[in-house]
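TL;DR need structure tokens for one chain.
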Amino acid sequence: MASLFTQEIHLSKRHEEILSQRLMLLQKMKNKFGDENTERASLLQATETASRRNL
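>> reply
TL;DR here they are.
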């Protein structure tokens, strides 16, 4: 019985580690996509400005 309890504790700790790693990965992805969207918006604005200038 103690062995099952020990396994449960180990699995619970591992589960918390995995959730923590997942949260960090999701945050990195959010930051990366946010940076890409900001860059994309900046390029779009520059393109629109250049188009107006060329008219």
